[in-house]
Amino acid sequence: MPELPEMETYRQQLAPLIQGVPITGVEVTRPKSLNVEPEQFAQLLRGNRILQINRRAKHLLFILATGELLVLHLMLGGWMYVGSDEDKPDRTFQVTIHFGAKSLYFIGLRLGYLHVHLPEEAEAIFKKLGPEPLQADFTFERFRQTLQGKRGNLKVTLVDQSVISGIGNCYSDEICFYAQLLPTRKINDLSEEELQRLYQSMRTVLLEAIRYGGYMESPLYAGDRLTGGFDSRCRVYDREGEPCVRCGHPLVFEEVSSRKCFYCANCQA
Fold first, then answer.
1. pLDDT band at residue 207 under the 50/70/90 scheme
2. CATH class, 140-263 region
3. Signal peptide span per the entry (predicted)?
């Protein structure tokens, strides 16, 4: 599932490709991906423009010239592609937005969605989300206050979108590895020094993942050399049995509270 770095990579790369370009057409093959009727969706978008693309947690927000927002959540298996009819992937598209000769294809939206909202509606939806981990005002002190009173383990707490937004299975494991903490550790058992390590690791891992384009390898457009570049840099995620890059011991996979979890049992404590 795309997490904060993947969606931030999409945001940064999509902006120069489609921002401000007139929308010339819309196709919808899966109406359930929308929260309005396809005809209404198409009528809103044709002739409109996307003035700005923002990100909130694992969502992208396409701000239309008419004031509405398109709120995208790719969920499990969703991705996007920008290109022409000639170079588009050989896949089924649930929604396609045309910008003249190029189009934005939404792929794998079986669980994901692209919803139309007014700004105040979107604000109400996002109120339930926790703070953004890379925001300048999300200091260590605020991080510590956010975790205060939490009794769950690290894995479950880091992926809880109401606690801190944008982190999922992949980056929770990478953050714990970088901090040399077991994902099964209880939040309320962490020392001040361990909390400091966790905070710094969270920022370091997420910023590195954004710099290398996240871990999802499907390119956004023909010739895209950024998207998915972090996959080869993952230290533990999806690396069961491989030697730990820090100590050489085989990495472990187990389910923690029904979630996939990868770690080193030797150098994470």
1. very high
2. mainly alpha
3. none
